[in-house]
Amino acid sequence: GMIKSKQIEDLQTEGFHYITAITKPQIETLINNGVIQMDLFDQGLAEVKSDSIRYILRRNPQRAQEIRKSREDKLESLWVTVTGNSREVVLSIDKEALKEEAKLDGCYVITSDLSEQSATAETIHGRYKDLSSVEWAFRSSKTVELELRPIHVRLETRTRGHVFVVMLAYRIIQELAIRWQHLDITVEEGIKELCTLCVEEVSFNGVDKALNQIPHPRESVEKLIDAAQVKMPEVLPSKGIIVTTKKKLTFRRIMI
Predict the structure, then answer these.
(1) In 3D, which of 187, 199, 206, 197 has the Cα closest to residue 238?
(2) In whole angstroms, what is the distance from residue 145 CA to residue 72 CA?
(3) Which of 108, 82, 93 minimizes the C-alpha distance to 28?
(4) Phi-psi domain of 84 (left: phi exceeds 0; alpha: psi -120 through 50; beta: other)
(5) 98, 112 in Cβ contact below 8 A?
């Protein structure tokens, strides 16, 4: 992510390296100081090294177009109402200022202290782009199906245990995403589909014990199970235990 100079110093003290992006004002400072030039952004993935720090430059054409479209929409939405004393209000656009504002549209600079022997410019750029996957992981862990928060335990050991279980669950999500990618379905959609899988309790006359028989799943569920490379048993023992989930337990407490 974006880290500041003090955090970079702390990382270096601990022997870590960093890959981070810099802000637009910092990019403008590098341009004004002659460290980087604007034409480098139009050369695909460019690299500049200054004082042992590497700068990886790129312009994202799609993002540049989005910013330009947003700016044009804002200009079109402006309007002026002339009122009082027959005075006239004139609205004009400073084209030079607009050009200066738009010159860095879609441009970004990634900086790192990694040596060329440790990582190429393409590797640094790729690892920074992976940040979106990390952000998605945290978002999925905190909300969606895993629901890391809120945490209902107080002791440190139990909190660590709670987070550890969630991280294991997320590892399963990663694996399912890989195995289900050819099915054109999200992991969340697949899990909801699997929730329709049920068991049938089978009991026999004169016998106290019962068993749970798993019926043959429907086609959509069977595809998910096969793609996940899971072998379903035909029967499961029935111990007569009712499992209460967190949501059901909360509802029961309200009812009491």
Answers:
(1) 199
(2) 40
(3) 108
(4) left
(5) no
φ, ψ (nearest 5 deg) of residue 233? -75, 160
Sign, CA torsion 41/45/48/49:
positive
Mean pLDDT of the chain: 82
Rounded to an integer, what distance in angstroms lies between the CA atom of residue 67 and that of residue 60?
11
List CB contacts of 246: < 8 A, sequence separation 6 or more. Answer: 152
- Tell if the pTM clears 0.85, that is, is over it: no
Q: Which long-range contacts (CB under 8 A, 24 or more apart) does 57-66 make?
A: 57/107, 57/108, 57/109, 58/107, 58/108, 58/125, 59/106, 59/107, 59/108, 60/106, 60/107, 60/108, 61/106, 62/106, 63/105, 63/106, 64/105, 64/106, 64/107, 65/106, 66/106
pLDDT digits (tens, 9 = 90+) for 101-114: 889 999 999 999 99
The distance from CA 142 to its chain's CA centroid, rounded to whole angstroms, is 12
Strand order in the sheet with 107-112: 19-21, 107-112, 53-59, 46-50
The crossing angle, in degrees rounded to 10, of helices 61-77 and 95-102 is 150
Q: Evaluate if residue 119 carries a pLDDT over 70.
A: yes
In Å, how far are 104, 143, 174 from 100, measured between CA atoms?
8, 41, 44
